[in-house]
Amino acid sequence: MLKIKQLSQPRVLIFILSLIVLCTLPWVVSSFILRIATGIMMWIGLALSWNMLGGYMGYISFGHGASFGVGAYMTGLLMMLLHLPFFVALIISGVITYIFAMIVGYPTLRLSGSYFAIGTWAFAEMMRQLVLVLDTTGGPEGLRLPPMLNDNFFYFVMFGLALLVFLAAYFFFENSDFGLKVKAVREEEVAARTLGLNTTWIKNQVFALSSMFAGIIGGAFAYWITYIHPDSVLGPLIADQMVIMVLLGGIGTLFGPVIGAIVLYVGNQYMLAAWGQSSAYLIILGLAICLVILFLPEGLLSLPRVFKSTTKGAFARLLSPPKKTRI
Fold it and tell me: What are phi and psi of 322, to 5 degrees?
């Protein structure tokens, strides 16, 4: 049963105003800025979906790119072969990704730590190689979907999906008994099992739920860019960016993945516009991650608190009387 905390009036007001601003964005910005905003919404949803598994349950996965790719290819195949409408294909793809993740999660979630991370990475690479040799998926030539030239449509689709994942994270992981069980498994799985929790079922549900959201967003991405290729929707960089965004913003928090996705994606697009396809982006990204891990291990979300405590300590030292020295 969900337990909804009493929200303060300023937070509710800020949330409503933010929704109003985001809903009016397509009519006040250029097409280029709108595409950037659409990409931001997509990565916010992906970062939040990965945070369900990596943040709330503590299982670092490099296989979420496989869920993203499965959703993309399933949506494309359902639209091209069965001629289903986009939203129908998207819902079916989400269900298939959920079932697919339940099957995959049963053996892989028996692993933990680095073994689980390596196992999920290997599985994602296996899926990429499989799609490359299948004729149904187009193999190395990729798959082309029917074009839809409407930037406003895709912005609202990605915005709606990001909002859906945000609300799911809030209600199911931040304010529910299920969220408490997930955090209990994260902190001490053996103790949680001795208290009567079905840890296997909990882990499978979290893995499948987070994968389902990644698959749905992957389906929307496939229709947005029209043409998909195994390297574009099943490449390792997709899962890597999810992990980095969450770590950058603040793992295991609600707003950390949102901040990390915005900062990383906007920075990426700015560097692409300024320098083109340059390896400098990877160098700067690696340096930024090292600095955050060293000085802000809880992510950018902790920056105001760290700054406040540092400033308070500096003022306290400044105002305190000097210590008397003994001669």
Answer: -65, 145
**Residues forming a β-bridge with 72:** none
Find the length of the chain.
Answer: 327
Question: What is the three-class DSSP state of 321?
Answer: coil
- Residue 217 vs residues 16, 133, 188, 240, 325: alpha-carbon distances, Å: 24, 24, 32, 16, 65
Assess contact for 204 and 57: CB atoms under 8 A. Answer: no
Angle at 90 between CA 88 and CA 91, to 5 degrees: 70
Please list, in sequence order, all residues whose beta carbon lies within 8 angstroms of the beta carbon of residue 311, skipping any fewer than 6 positions away: none
Taking only the tens place, the pLDDT of each residue in 199-222 is 889 999 999 999 999 999 999 999
Alpha carbon distance 195, 188 (integer Å): 11
**Residue range 230-262, pLDDT digits in tens:** 888 988 888 888 988 998 888 889 999 999 999
Residue 177 · residue 3 · CB < 8 Å:
yes
Predicted confidence band of residue 327 (pLDDT cuts 50, 70, 90): very low
pLDDT in tens, 129-169: 899 888 888 888 888 898 888 899 999 999 999 999 999 99
Residues 6 or more apart in contact with residue 327 via CB below 8 angstroms: none
For every residue of 169-196, DSSP letters joined together read HIIIIISBHHHHHHHHHHH-HHHHHHTT
- Give the other-Cβ count within 10 Å of 84's Cβ: 17
Q: Residue 140's closest CA among 65, 70, 228? A: 228
Contact 52, 169 (CB under 8 A): yes
**C-alpha span between 127 and 200 (Å, rounded):** 24
Tell me: the pLDDT tens digits for 45-67?
999 999 999 999 989 888 888 99
Comparing CA positions, the residue from 143, 121, 128 lying closest to residue 230 is: 128
Other Cβ atoms within 10 Å of 178 Cβ, number: 17
